[in-house]
Amino acid sequence: MWYQQTLTLSAKPRGFHLVTDEVLGELRRLKDVQVGMLHLLLQHTSASLTLNENCDPTVRSDMEQHFLRAVPDNAPYQHDYEGADDMPAHIKSSLLGVSLTLPVARGQLVLGTWQGIWLGEHRIQGGTRRIVATLQGE
Prior knowledge:
Elements: E1 2-9, E2 13-18, H1 20-26, E3 35-42, E4 47-53, H2 57-70, H3 86-96, E5 99-105, E6 108-109, E7 115-125, E8 129-137
Antiparallel strand pairs: 1-8, 2-7, 3-5, 3-8, 4-7, 5-6
């Protein structure tokens, strides 16, 4: 079985956001897969997807603080006509990536106890974000 669906995540402010429930809430056919894989592709160049801590929100704020220091808005970027946060957002997106491939068993994602899907929103206001979800399995 192959199934593909485009998911839309609500607009979020800059930072890291736990979106596991939002993604799973929109994914209609996950429960039909006994064994398979879910591939998620974020269709944006100024945000990212990553898998990390799903319990303690201070991990997300610490991650945001790290990236604000490592890739500051006020560096002398050439690409600046979309705002001071745009080029740093592109760099963070490339560093973290825009896709995840996750195992599925018995209609559920097989994640570690403390793992969740994060959206890294790297623009101050990025707007809604689209994810192409491709599910394969039996």
